[in-house]
Every structure is written in C-alpha cells, then in structure tokens.
Amino acid sequence: MRKLVYYVAVTLDGRIAGPRGEFDFYPMGTPEQAAAYSAAMNERYPETIPTAARAALGLTDTPNRRFDTVLMGRGAYQPGLDEGMPSPYAHLKQYVISRSLGRAPSPDVTVVPGHPLRLVRDLKGQDGLDIWLCGGGKLAGTLLPEIDRLVIKSYPVVAGSGIPAFDTAFTPTHFAPEDRRTFDNGVTVTTYRSTP
C-alpha cells in the first residue's frame, strides 16, 4: 500500500516558514556545504524539485524514485503560482487542498475543496509510488492520522514565530526514528515511521 510521507524542512522550534511564508532564512552553510547537501537530497528525492528547476540541476530525465503524487495546501501552492508556475510539479500528480482557490489555474492540478482525509485514503488504495505531503502546517495537522512517514530536514535556526509543521489540536502521535544523517552545513535529516 502507498504511504503518505511528510517531507519538510523545519527550524529548531518546529516552524516550516516565517509568519508571512518566508523560507529564505534557512542556513545552507558554505557554498561547498550547500552543494553537497543539495546533491545528496536531490539524489534521494529528485521528484521534490520543482519542474522548472529540474533541467538546471540535471534532473530532467531522472525518474521519480519515491513519489508520484504531491499534496499541497493553498499556502504551499501559492508561492509558485505567484511566480507564474501554475503547475509546479508537472512530473507528479498534483492536488491542492483549498476551499478558497476555486478552479485550478492549470489542467495538471486538481483542486480539492474539502475532505483531504478521504482523498488520501482513496490515493493510498491506488497503485503507484508514495504520496508526498509538501505542506503546509494546517494540512499536515488535518492529515496527521494518515501520515505514515516523516522526513524532517531540521535546520540549525530558530524562527521565533511562523507557520508550525503541524497546526492542529493537542494530538500526541508517536513516530519511531528509522534513519538519521547529519550534513556538514548543520542540517539533520531524520526519517520516522508511524507507530501504533
């Protein structure tokens, strides 16, 4: 069965973005450290690179290794849309969960106005690779009962405020670490699996 995987960057205080959606404050280290980190992540998760950037990174012909579907909330989708990218991950099946977006700006994007839990359960029952939960915090909070894996890229920075990784009611949910790698730029990438 396909798994729902929340693959996301977070600060030390659990924020995925600043109060206005900022993410340019994440430290990448020296150019050499940043290049080594990016190369390792692109090798492991090439499908998480937006379609427009894949050619510049030599990923145009790289097959999807882990995901063939992406779920985004309106907040995660809007920055690409604002930059003229109505289909940011054209190499994936794209779903945007939003009550306010209305009609999809691209035929490659499916807007789902409600019931994301039902959507995820339906997608899990279909054949294919895993499903990438791209963000944001409200959507992750709603989908928490269906998240099978977390891939947390923890950056050595405290945001102080901003969008939390999970915006939901107090809901203790257990995960067990499976794999951890620390990079020279200070980023730690940990994979967790859900536990009963």
Automatic annotation (TrEMBL):
InterPro entries: DHFR-like_dom_sf, RibDG_C, Riboflavin_Biosynth_HTPR. It comes from the Bacteria. Residues 3-188 form the Bacterial bifunctional deaminase-reductase C-terminal domain. It comes from Streptomyces johnsoniae. This is Dihydrofolate reductase family protein.
